[in-house]
């Protein structure tokens, strides 16, 4: 297959060197905060291989669901969860359970955060399908993809109007607060002073926040939407800037809450599709390319780095499903729902195999 043409077309917006320098300066402070953030959330518990056996009894495994960011490509996560639901309906052990019943803790970033909040609020997968197929095009108007956008939302304001997104979130969640959700949950965001944030109903300081507001915070992606302000006086943007794959944070919080080691943690991690590699000419000319390229590279690289780390920690108990995309699907391209369905169908064999492995681990713990 020939490389796609990623050159800048007529009508596309080139970023000035000042724009790129300002954006990267804002992003560059996150790693320092992230290091202390991980320590504060007791991720070191995962390094203990003996914790679960302190009392001489084998502890029951705990199961987590991690949903990554990716704009409208979050539809891929819903399609994979639908396959999981179908498998459960055909299993006499699992037929009376919901997808949410399988998990002790759920986590999400950006659109994955909204999906996670929806699941924890008992919103059905069919309702999520409707959200993506019928309403995403109202939130992301056709033809207005990120490669046409001048602004860097974290700095100058987002291109997409937030009203339709906020209306949809309010219709879904109403006045439900984090404390009302059915499962322990964490949702990532970044504060206006560039600190990584976990919103969780496990944190007493967060329990009264409205779910709709947290959904807005985690999905306030630079270039998409303006930051979201909360009653604490801070503004928040998309957590995908530091944890597009929240699996590591999820494992840390599970270890802390349930007092278990990595031996007793199982995580099903769903991605929004693995973009094809960019041609060398695009990387070489990064200073003149589109902001969407920079965002995609940040989100894809953080996802892959966390996946590699989690594979080292959890081994076969970290099940990562992130099907490859044949072509780049813009994070705001609401016209590609059929293409995403094709991706999942084309890779259904491998997806089903990994889902079966997860269900086998779950059922083994029920015996």
Automatic annotation (TrEMBL):
PROSITE patterns: PNPLA (PS51635). Signal peptide: none annotated. Coiled coil: none annotated. A motif (GXGXXG) lies at residues 69-74. One of its GO terms (molecular function) is hydrolase activity. The active site is at residues 110, 238. Residues 65-251 form the PNPLA domain. Keywords: Hydrolase, Lipid degradation, Lipid metabolism. Pfam families: Patatin. It comes from the Eukaryota. Transmembrane segments: none annotated. InterPro entries: Acyl_Trfase/lysoPLipase, PNPLA_dom, Teg/CotR/CapV-like. A motif (DGA/G) lies at residues 238-240. A motif (GXSXG) lies at residues 108-112. GO terms for biological process: lipid catabolic process. This is PNPLA domain-containing protein. It comes from Polysphondylium violaceum.
């Amino acid at each position: 297959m020939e490389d796609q043409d990623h050159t800048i077309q007529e009508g596309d917006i080139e970023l000035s060197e000042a724009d790129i320098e300002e954006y990267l300066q804002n992003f560059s402070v996150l790693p320092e905060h992230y290091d202390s953030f991980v320590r504060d959330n007791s991720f070191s518990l995962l390094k203990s291989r003996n914790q679960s056996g302190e009392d001489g009894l084998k502890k029951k495994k705990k199961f987590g669901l991690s949903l990554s960011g990716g704009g409208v490509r979050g539809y891929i996560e819903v399609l994979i969860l639908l396959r999981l639901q179908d498998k459960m309906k055909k299993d006499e052990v699992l037929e009376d359970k919901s997808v949410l019943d399988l998990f002790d803790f759920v986590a999400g970033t950006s659109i994955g955060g909204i999906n996670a909040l929806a699941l924890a609020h008992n919103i059905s997968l069919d309702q999520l399908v409707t959200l993506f197929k019928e309403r995403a095009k109202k939130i992301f108007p056709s033809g207005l993809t990120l490669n046409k956008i001048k602004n860097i939302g974290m700095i100058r304001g987002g291109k997409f109007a937030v009203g339709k997104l906020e209306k949809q979130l309010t219709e879904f969640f109403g006045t439900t607060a984090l404390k009302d959700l059915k499962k322990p949950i964490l949702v990532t965001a970044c504060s206006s002073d560039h600190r990584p944030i976990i919103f969780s109903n496990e944190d007493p300081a967060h329990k009264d926040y409205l779910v709709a507001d947290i959904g807005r915070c985690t999905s306030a992606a630079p270039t998409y939407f303006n930051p979201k302000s909360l009653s604490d006086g801070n503004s928040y943007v998309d957590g995908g800037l530091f944890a597009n794959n929240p699996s590591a944070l999820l494992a840390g919080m599970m270890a802390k809450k349930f007092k278990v080691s990595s031996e007793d943690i199982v995580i099903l991690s769903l991605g929004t599709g693995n973009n094809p590699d960019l041609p060398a000419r695009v990387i070489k000319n990064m200073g003149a390319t589109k902001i969407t390229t920079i965002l995609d590279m940040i989100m894809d690289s953080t996802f892959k780095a966390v996946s590699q780390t989690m594979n080292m920690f959890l081994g076969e108990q970290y099940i990562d499903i992130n099907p490859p995309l044949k072509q780049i699907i813009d994070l705001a391209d609401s016209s590609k729902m059929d293409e995403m369905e094709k991706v999942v169908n084309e890779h259904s064999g491998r997806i089903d195999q990994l889902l079966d492995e997860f269900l086998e681990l779950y059922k083994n713990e029920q015996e």
